[in-house]
Design brief:
single chain, about 290 residues, alpha+beta, Uridine Diphospho-n-acetylenolpyruvylglucosamine Reductase, domain 3, Enolase-like, domain 1, 2 domains, five-stranded antiparallel β-sheet, 12 helices, 14 strands, about 40% helix, globular, binds flavin-adenine dinucleotide, FAD
């Protein structure tokens, strides 16, 4: 089956195409997922290439809020001084994607909308409390990323809507962050389990002031282990509290893993990955565990 190709140059032109093609339009960004789908026989009526629209690309800081255009590639994220400074966890997640070719073509917007449980940028964006701005000919709305992701390959996006902006608050000073991924192979590995951690600390009180942990590839979508976070947040920065937090995270992921074939393996690997992410996050801003308990 053939399809028409459209390459709007502005958001206004994009909206005109979306209004005309309605349900028949499929957005094309880097194409690393779309082309696989098309080859598998899922052909749209119209392919709408959004990579020619300058306003949908790039990273900027607006006060304490970071904005990323959806067609920004993983390579651009890895190389961005803004992201390295304000959201190191996302730079690490982007660096762990596939191969240089995939990082050069694949976009953060495509990674989100593709909604794979193993998408590498998503746990980082979930931990960062990212908001997603969606635009359609009917209007615009903003959803939190956890609200947006509703299942494997499924999102809350409506026909005609395009993701036009990803934003989140810059991390505060004395806040470290890290992403750890366990894949099957070193290169081109889709994540078998991943964790993104953001840890803030107060050096006078030796308290954990911020604790955000998101896990990937253990449920239909990456999610925050909030019970575990609350065990450590506003408590002392001790190994015991860290371990209690990781243990609680294991309880939370055990529920979502259920009886799937990989559950036994992921229950073993999960706590180790989460602990490594938390320790790496702390290591960024803090001298290491030797300084406390
Ligand atoms: C060999 C290989 C290795 C890979 N390795 C990894 C990996 O290690 N980690 C990982 O996370 N992923 C990996 N992927 C998956 C893929 O590269 C990523 O999901 C990538 O981010 C998709 O981005 P894209 O720009 O190519 O999206 P596209 O393929 O262009 O689009 C993906 C989906 O999102 C929709 N879409 C894209 N942008 C928008 C938008 N702005 N608004 C609305 N809808 C939109 C498209 O319609 C489509 O449904 C790999 C893929 C391949 C082929």
């Amino acid at each position: 089956m053939s399809y028409t190709y459209h390459a709007p140059r502005s958001i206004a032109e994009l909206m005109a195409v979306m209004a005309e093609k309605k349900d028949g339009a499929m957005v094309l960004a880097g194409g690393t997922d779309v082309m696989v789908e098309i080859r598998a026989g899922h052909t749209p009526q119209a392919l709408v290439d959004i990579t020619k629209i300058a306003d949908l690309n790039g990273i900027r800081s607006d006060g304490d809020t970071i904005h990323i255009g959806p067609t920004t590639t993983f390579t651009a994220i890895v190389e961005s001084p803004i992201i390295r400074e304000a959201a190191f966890v996302l730079a690490q997640a982007a660096a762990s994607v596939g191969s240089p070719q995939i990082r050069n073509r694949g976009t953060v917007g495509g990674n989100i909308v593709n909604a794979s449980p193993a998408a590498d940028s998503v746990p980082a964006l979930v931990a960062l409390d990212a908001g997603l701005r969606l635009l359609s000919p009917a209007g615009e709305r903003t959803l939190g990323i956890e609200e947006f992701l509703v299942g494997v390959g499924q999102t809350a996006i409506l026909p005609g809507e395009v993701l036009v902006d990803i934003s989140f608050p810059a991390l505060a000073p004395k806040t470290g962050s890290a992403f750890i991924k366990l894949g099957r192979r070193k290169a081109l590995a889709i994540s078998r389990i991943s964790a993104a951690a953001i840890i803030g600390y107060d050096d006078r009180e030796l308290m954990c002031t911020d604790c955000r942990i998101a896990v990937g590839a253990v449920a239909q979508s990456p999610f925050r282990v909030r019970t575990a976070e609350n065990i450590w947040k506003n408590c002392s920065l001790t190994r015991n509290n860290r371990d209690a937090c990781v243990q609680a995270a294991l309880q939370e992921i055990s529920v979502t893993l259920g009886q799937r074939a990989s559950a036994a393996y992921k229950k073993q690997a999960g706590p180790a990955i989460i602990r490594r992410a938390v320790d790496a996050a702390l290591g960024q801003v803090f001298g290491g565990w030797e300084q406390v308990l």
